[in-house]
Design brief:
about 90 residues, alpha+beta, single chain, two-stranded antiparallel sheet, two-stranded antiparallel ribbon
Amino acid sequence: MRVRLSPRTDAPGRRSRGVTHRRAPAPAAPPATASEAAGDLVDERRLREAGGPDDRAQYACTCGYVFHADVSTSVACPHCGAGQAW
């Protein structure tokens, strides 16, 4: 089956060939309201009000001493001073 395009004219007396018609861009989404944005951050707000995440860990040293310390790349045993693997 062959399809023929009907001739179009852009200006009087002229035929256009290969005219490309562009579609209008889609309308942008409306911005989120304050109540919608607040609903997305409920968990984050609850965590901040609780004092934030607990960044402490339990370490067990080779000397047998078990202690809690802030999470860090360089933790030393308070009993013997040996460095702990993270």
